[in-house]
Structures are given as C-alpha cells and as structure tokens.
Specification:
Layout: E1 3-4, E2 8-12, H1 18-25, H2 42-59, E3 63-68, E4 71-86, E5 89-98, H3 107-121, E6 127-133, H4 137-145, E7 149-154, E8 163-169, H5 170-182
Antiparallel strand pairs: 1-2, 2-3, 3-4, 4-5, 6-8, 7-8
Helix pairs in contact: 1-2, 3-4
C-alpha cells in the first residue's frame, strides 16, 4: 500500500526501515524538542520499529515511512496516526519526524493535513490529537494548519514543563470541510 500527497510517498513501515529510523531519530538535531532525546543505538530503533509493526498488525494503521515522489528510495521521515497513551489517556495521536534536510519546505504540514483527512475519512476516527512541547513553535504551526487546536497543557514528562495537547474532533473537522466547500 502506497499513499501519495502532492509531493510525498507514504507506505507502512517495514523491518528494513531500522537504519533510516535510527538515522532520523538518532540525530540530536531532530530531537531538539524531544525530552527523551535521540535514540541511543540501532537496537533501540529496531525495538521501536517492532512496536510500530505490531501497531499495524493490531489496528490496520500506524506510522508511515515518508519519501519524496521524486526520490522514492530515500526515507526523509516517519509519521502518521497511532494509538498512544499520555498520562493514562489513550488517544489517536498524530506524530511525525523529518530529517533535517527536509525542514522548512512545508512537508510536515503536507503530511499532517493528509493524515488528518485519512484519519477521519478512511479510519473514521472520532478525534485526532497531538502532543507538542511549548517551545516547539514550528510544530504548533503545523498542527494549527492541519486544523488541530490547543486544548490544554498536560504533564506528560516528570520534572519538565508541561506539554501542549492539540485536538481536532470529527465534528469540528466536518464543519471546517463544509465551510471550505461553500467558498
């Protein structure tokens, strides 16, 4: 299964993605706003990838490996929708991380918009949420552009400032779609 946006190719993650996962998630620059920091080694990346593959088996959706249409063999990021639990609250989580060479090109916004549409139209999710650090302004902008709105702070990491919870309900999304079609 390959999905496309105007510039991106998306496919479910697979076992062979561990090196790319470590290249992107092990990079300190891509973890500037991540309290857990970069992945420590390839073994950790393989463990995370196994969890992502199990999510696909259990739910039929999850994180995608992301590449550009004009260079489909080079993974530039990972992202999508997954069921995550933050402070004992399960949610349909929108997440993404792109390699540094992909920053500043609107690719995260393109992915987020596609994932929201996919989540509501294909998966029939009732709500999509995302967690972002308060100092990560670029990611907040991506979420707002995808239609998610700030709901409240959540204390998801012990001894650190609270993160921000952004959410979009299907009802809110439907209203926004109707407004767009009227224009």
């Amino acid at each position: 299964m390959r999905l496309t946006t105007p510039r991106l190719l998306l496919r479910p993650v697979r076992d062979l993605d561990a090196d790319d996962l470590f290249r992107i998630y092990g990079d300190p620059a891509t973890n500037t706003f991540n309290p857990a920091g970069p992945y420590p080694d390839i073994v950790h990346a393989r463990n995370i990838l196994s969890r992502w593959l199990k999510h696909w088996e259990d739910y039929g959706f999850g994180d995608w490996a992301i590449s550009l249409k004009d260079n489909p063999e080079r993974i530039i990021g990972f992202g999508g929708l997954s069921i995550r639990t933050y402070i004992d609250i399960p949610m349909n989580n929108l997440g993404y991380r792109f390699s540094t060479e992909s920053w500043g090109k609107g690719l995260a916004t393109e992915l987020a918009n596609y994932a929201v549409d996919y989540g509501f139209n294909e998966l029939k999710l009732p709500e999509i949420s995302a967690i972002v650090r308060a100092n990560h302004k670029a990611s907040q902008k991506v979420l707002i552009n995808a239609g998610l709105g700030y709901k409240r702070n959540i204390q998801d990491v012990t001894d650190l400032p609270a993160s921000m919870l952004f959410t979009l309900t299907r009802t809110e999304w439907d209203k926004n779609q109707n407004k767009r079609s009227i224009k």
